[in-house]
Request: fold
Amino acid sequence: MADTVKSGSKRRYHAPQRAEQAAATRHAILEAARELFTTRGYAATTIGQVAQRSGVAVDTVYATVGRKPVLLREVFETALSGRDEAVPAEERDYVQAIRAAPTAAEKLATYAQALVSIAPRVAPVQAALRDAAARDPECAALDRELSERRATNMRLFAADLRATGDLRPDLTDDEVADIIWSMASADYYLLYVRHRGWTPARFGTHLHDAWTRLLLRHP
Reply:
């Protein structure tokens, strides 16, 4: 009896430790891949380099995350969520805050402020994905999928804004969604921040001001 209890206790003790080690390994792999993809490019990065940078074996990269296209997807999803795992849009804190805001102006301000934190993580990864999409069919499919997913979310956002009664009546929801979709893109962010030297905070202020002037009935 004593031996059985002791053995069970030992298993209970090691299970959380193994989970923590697995999470740390995954984090190291994703961080290594993110750095390599955004500095060297997707095509020039090998799984062997990711393994070396993260301090694990090549087989561990495959077993923990997967092939290179899967790795790129996970790097994007974790950059978007700010965690080591993907988070559905409806569960993200800023999305919940947007939906709780009573006016369109407050919703737009909340999203613009969220992008100040999100864009510096996501934009370099999305640029790497866009470059990879020009050469790799799997990456091209991933790029299209993520673009359409974001467009769908923007249409939901437009409907949420419309429900406040604050939007210009001469704009359709699709037009509102397309305006926000384009201006919240990695390309738009990188033009200002990487090429024109704006800070993320200044970019966020610009988005809020532009969206307010473009979209609201009474800016």
Notes: The chain has two domains: 1-72, 88-219. DSSP finds ten helices and no strands in the chain.
